[in-house]
């Protein structure tokens, strides 16, 4: 085996709102992990989103892109806020995010929804339904109806007609199927491909290509197919039937938000966006939470768990990733909660963002 690297360049994008607070907590935790496990991280900050608009009049400046591409990995907090909502489209924070994904070739978005035993009651669903749920949604990120052309609003026979195109090429389906096959084989070995092949031609191609890739190159993965309407229902009815789900951009957008509700709090959900090669971007699923920014109330765990995904997918450190997840669970076991996780009369202690970071950092250095 090749010796592991012992030093990594990681670009930090603190972004907007609660971004700087959760970034500081995450950095502290990963730093404690690196010290314990004898590797080094060279942290470099860069601008994205509203922060970049304010400083450089550009939501994702060229220098940020170059720095991301030159890193081993990128850790992003969150972007956006009321302040920039009325800007023209090219000066909105979200435009910077889309540009980053496109320029870095990040075509696969991985969103795990894992219900932790300590937080079962945070879900609005019944205990027996969510207990033990561990689903990974692999969403295609750079194709589908969001990018298909032609698109627009035309006048036809005196009225406006709007249209977008759901388009997938064979090669686009092939590469996301390979990511999903790989992810599924390293998890529970079950892959459910979601489409609407009973109605849509593009879905029939999706189904054919996914079947080809998985049966030929991932023979140990057990593949099934499901129509998206049924999948939406099954996710709530009995989520434990799923291990890994793969789907196109728009179905994945909807299903991954639905799956996130199984877990309870937005503050617990990490994500990874990866491409064929080069650095990936790891970020919490939540937004910049402007309503609680600057008040030390944010939950940093989604970003800390995103750092665990970074260790697993980009830095080739699966054991360290597992240790980080274990430290997060140990903090919850100890009864510490940020305000978003607090249940009534649960006897837990409410802490701020910074204190949660300190506690997890201490645990990551000490637990066995
Ligand atoms: P975006 O459009 O960027 O996804 P959003 O409009 O979906 O953003 P969020 O910023 O994710 O909204 O916030 C939704 C709600 O969840 C807010 O009330 C926010 O305070 C809360 N929230 C989001 N993230 C966290 C977190 N890490 N810790 C605590 N509360 C959070
Ligand atoms: Mg949102």
Overall description:
The longest helix has 19 residues, at 19-37. The protein contains twelve helices and 14 strands. The protein is an alpha/beta fold. The strands form three sheets. It has a ten-stranded mixed beta sheet with strand order 2-1-3-12-11-4-5-10-8-9, sandwiched between helices. The protein is globular, with a radius of gyration of 21 Å. Adenosine-5'-triphosphate binds at residues 18, 80, 266-267, 286-289, 291-292, 298-299, 302, 340.
Give a concise summary:
This protein is of the alpha/beta class and 368 residues long. Helix content is 41%, strand content 22%.
Relative helix content: 40-55%
* Element-level helix/strand string: EHEHHEHEHEEEHEHEHEHEEHHEEH
> Radius of gyration from the CA trace?
21 Å
Which of globular, elongated, flat, extended, rod-shaped describes the shape? Answer: globular
Share of residues in strands: 15-25%
- The oligomeric state of the chains shown is single chain
Low-confidence stretches: none
Strands, total number: 14
Count of helical stretches: 12
For the residues shown, what is the average pLDDT? 95
Structural class of the secondary elements? alpha/beta
Major pleated sheet: 10 strands, mixed
Q: What distance lies between the first and last C-alpha atoms, to the nearest angstrom?
A: 26 Å
Bound molecules: adenosine-5'-triphosphate, magnesium ion
Strand order of the largest sheet: 2-1-3-12-11-4-5-10-8-9
């Amino acid at each position: 085996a090749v010796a592991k690297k012992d030093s990594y360049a990681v670009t930090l994008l603190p972004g907007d709102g609660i971004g700087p607070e959760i970034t500081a907590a995450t950095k502290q935790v990963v730093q404690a992990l690196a010290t314990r496990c004898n590797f080094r991280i060279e942290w470099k900050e860069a601008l994205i989103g509203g922060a970049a608009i304010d400083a450089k009049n550009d939501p994702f400046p060229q220098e940020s892109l170059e720095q991301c591409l030159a890193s081993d990995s990128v850790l992003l907090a969150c972007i956006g806020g009321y302040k920039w909502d009325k800007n023209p489209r090219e000066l909105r924070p979200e435009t910077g995010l889309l540009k980053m994904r496109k320029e870095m070739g990040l075509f696969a978005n991985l969103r795990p929804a894992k219900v932790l035993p300590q937080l079962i009651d945070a879900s609005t669903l019944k205990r027996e339904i969510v207990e033990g749920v561990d689903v990974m949604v692999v969403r295609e990120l750079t194709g589908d109806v969001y990018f298909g052309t032609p698109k627009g609003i035309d006048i036809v026979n005196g009225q406006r007609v709007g249209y977008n195109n759901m388009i997938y090429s064979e090669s686009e389906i092939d590469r996301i199927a390979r990511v999903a096959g790989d992810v599924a084989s390293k998890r529970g070995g079950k892959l459910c491909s979601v489409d609407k092949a009973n109605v849509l031609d593009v879905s029939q191609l999706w189904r054919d290509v996914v079947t080809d890739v998985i049966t030929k190159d991932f023979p140990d993965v057990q593949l099934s197919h499901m129509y998206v309407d049924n999948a939406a229902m099954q996710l709530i009815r009995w989520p434990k039937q799923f291990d890994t789900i793969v789907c196109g951009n728009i179905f994945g957008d909807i299903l991954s938000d639905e799956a996130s509700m199984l877990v309870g709090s937005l503050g617990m959900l990490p994500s990874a966006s990866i491409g064929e090669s080069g650095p990936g971007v790891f970020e919490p699923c939540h937004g910049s939470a402007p309503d609680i920014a600057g008040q030390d109330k944010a939950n940093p765990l989604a970003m800390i768990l995103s750092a665990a995904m970074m260790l697993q997918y980009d830095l080739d450190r699966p054991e360290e990733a597992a240790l980080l997840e274990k430290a997060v669970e140990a903090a919850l076991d100890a009864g510490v909660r940020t305000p978003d996780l607090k249940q009534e009369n649960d006897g837990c202690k409410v802490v701020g963002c910074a204190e949660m970071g300190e506690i997890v950092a201490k645990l990551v250095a000490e637990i066995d």
